[in-house]
Design brief:
Elements lengths: L1 H16 L17 H7 L13 H20 L3 H19 L6 E7 L2 E5 L1 H18 L3 H21 L3 H13 L6
Antiparallel strand pairs: 1-2
Helix pairs in contact: 3-4, 3-5, 4-5, 5-6, 6-7
Length: about 180
């Protein structure tokens, strides 16, 4: 119950601030906003679903699960990677119900900023799950993942225009036929 109150309080604070204008200008370069930097910022104390109570806990849990899934994906341990990608997305979906804006400088604590990209991380998870499904010959399910991925990456790009997001979007466009975008 306390976690829900915290999330609602954070939501109320964001609602008072108003919606940010669409991202414009030069994209944030990969050297400043990238997956490896997100992984590094969330290393350390292992987050568990049982202990997740605040936004930062759910975010750390999602990022840590994604980092493990990435290793398994590289090793072609697809069933285990798929399970962790789904679990990671579950953690991010908890956050996205209340805070759906990605940010390159999310204030975690006073004077402590982190890369906060739940939409972009979900998009990358969906991309990888689609690649796993494609490798299994499940092209229709793969396309469904890629369409969800494209929607998430576009939501991220509306909030923060990053080279990371633009490259992910380009990859998705190459995987999806033009008529299904």
């Amino acid at each position: 119950m306390g976690a829900l109150l915290l999330i609602f309080a954070l939501l109320a604070l964001q609602a008072c601030a108003g919606a940010p204008p669409p991202a414009s200008g030069s994209p944030i370069p990969l050297k400043e906003a990238n997956q490896e930097a997100v992984f590094e910022q969330n290393e350390g104390l292992e987050a568990t679903p049982e202990d997740a109570k605040e936004v930062r806990d759910f975010y750390r849990l999602g990022v840590q699960q994604k980092a493990k899934a990435e290793k398994l994906f590289q090793e072609k341990s697809y069933p285990e990677a798929m399970k962790l990608y789904r679990s990671s997305n579950d953690s991010f979906s908890t956050i996205l119900r209340y805070m759906d804006q990605d940010s390159a400088e999310y204030t975690l604590f006073e004077n402590t900023h982190i890369l906060f990209f739940p939409n972009l991380l979900v998009a990358d998870n969906e991309l990888k799950m689609g690649l796993i499904l494609q490798a299994r010959g499940q092209e229709g399910l793969a396309r469904s993942c890629w369409k969800r991925s494209l929607a998430s990456v576009q939501k991220s790009l509306r909030a923060e225009r990053t080279e990371w997001g633009l490259s992910l979007q380009e990859k998705l466009f190459s995987l999806l036929p033009a008529k299904s975008n």
